[in-house]
Amino acid sequence: MTLLATACTEAGKPRTGLDWTNCGDGFECAKLAVPLDHDKPSGERIEIGVIRLPAKGDRIGSVLINPGGPGASGIEYARSARSVVSEAVRARFDVVGFDPRGVGESSPVRCLPSSALDAYVGLDSSPDSPGEVAALEESSRRFAAGCQARSGKLLPHVGTADAARDMDLLRAALGDEKLTYLGKSYGTQLGAVYADLFPGRVRALVLDGAVDPSLPPLELNATQAHGFEIALDAFLEDCFTAGDCPFAGTVKSAREKITALLRKADQEPLANQTGDGRQVGEAWTSLGLLTPLYDRKAWPVLRQALGEALKGDGTTLLRMADLLIGRNEGGTYSNQTEANMAVNCIDGRFPRTSSAFATAARESAADAPLFGSYVMWGSLPCAYWPVKGESQGKIDAPGAAPIMVVGTERDPATPYEWAKALADQLSSGVLVGFDGDGHTAYLTGSACVDRLVDDYLINLAVPKDGVHCPKIG
Questions:
Q1: 3-state SS of 314-383?
Q2: Which domains does the chain have, with CATH numbers?
């Protein structure tokens, strides 16, 4: 299904019905109208925000990119195209980013005012008493009710399948016969669902930091919590080699100190020097600890933050947490946190009772003692969600062209086993492994990964299934 017909300009580039305007630094921006409900294509429409950086060389077409989340802005991600897509790829493709429906500039989901989001994020998500469980339940009910009150019409239509259908309309409006795509983290799920819906329209898909869509949502949470524990251990092993490491001894003793820090923050919040009045309790401390694990380059900041926190100052941890959840310096939020919950709740079949979450949190904490309870309770609003969710299940995309799935061995957010699982599920999946740390692999320092991805995107050179890129120095 196409939105608008395309023609060619005198330069041989596609001219589309998208009304591109200059939006600075070499980028062009536009809006794409799509159906609110794809089952009613002639009904109410919403707008999808789109941005592109035009190719500078012998143009092949467009490469759509998505940073994941769900809830992260593809427009903001594309603004960094010169660092997230190689020069070789940028020369041959227009780099196109878009905010998926419900996100950012694309009919954003809204649920709570910023002050209420501060309270929601800061609430203890590893409850130690019936009173703390009750507070979590009430806060989660308010979150779900706020989404219904502010965005009720949109909530049934923000799932990944709807976003994938939007992506196909965008492909057509750009004038591309088939889709070339680079998706990271949750963006791998979006790409895989696209391939399943439109297998004949796949040119090349790179799915980096893959999600396993076959897992039930609480099992996904538990596996992710375990992945963060593995990433923390890798950080601590590296920390001992640095002169500013706040720990000495063993990984076990360092973990004991971090456990004590979280318990202390639960009882008596750490200092906050930002002046915004937030209490740096266990939730903000945990979130600030998780954030730098996404990127090995942030490990020096984590060493600093932990050194300060062990002395009672949680300011740097708080600033790290703000980066992950989209909280701006003035106290306002992007809608990343709200969109993340809206998409996750519609994409998964969650239990509808808090007791099921309590059981899952206890089980997860046994395997992931630092992060299991925190990660598991974080999905509690889905127990009260006004729209029933449905889990995706396995994706095979029969008939699709070869699809590259990239997995990093010590990825904290999307464990390597998920990449292996997705590559196995896809009928044309090809797995590329990387012996590395941090979240996703492309353009993070591995020349091996970068070469394989670029050659595939540009030349459709499919790597050998199971090829493994070595650890970098």
A1: CHHHHHHHHHHHCECCCCCECCHHHHHHHHHHHHCCCCCCHHHHHHHHHHHHHHCCCCHHHHHHCCHHHH
A2: 7-104+156-214+392-469 (3.40.50.1820), 109-152+217-382 (no CATH)
- pLDDT digits 0-9 by tens, 310-343: 999 999 999 999 999 999 989 999 999 999 999 9
| Distance, CA of 297 to CA of 433 (rounded, Å) | 20
- The helix or strand, by DSSP H or E, that contains position 46, with its residue range, turns out to be strand 45-53
Q: Which of 99, 411, 437, 454 is catalytic?
A: 411
What CA–CA distance (Å, rounded) separates 290 from 423? 27
Active-site hit among 73, 125, 151, 185 = 185
Instruction: Count other C-beta atoms under 10 Å from residue 91's C-beta.
Output: 14
Tokens read off for 254? 């360092």
Place of tokens 């808090």: 354
Task: Tokens for 218, please give them.
Answer: 């609480």
- 165 neighbors 189 (Cβ within 8 angstroms): no
List the catalytic residue out of 62, 439, 450, 454: 439
C-beta of residue 436 within 8 angstroms of C-beta of residue 446: yes
Q: Is residue 411 annotated as a catalytic residue, yes or no?
A: yes
DSSP-based three-state secondary structure for 278: coil
Is 439 part of the annotated catalytic residue set?
yes
- Exposed / middle / buried, residue 313 (Cβ in 10 Å: 0-12, 13-18, 19+): middle
Q: Which residues of 240-279 are buried (b: 16+ CB within 10 A; e: fewer)?
A: eeeeebbbeeebeebbeebeebbebbbeebbebeeeeebb
d(CA 135, CA 179): 46
Phi, psi (degrees; rounded to nearest 5) at 64: -80, 140
Q: Quick: pLDDT tens for 255-300.
A: 999 999 999 999 999 999 999 999 999 999 999 999 999 999 999 9
What's this model's pTM, rounded to 2 decimal places?
Answer: 0.94
| Phi, psi torsion values for 61, nearest 5 degrees | 170, -145
- Please give the distance of CA 412 from its chain centroid, rounded to a whole number: 12
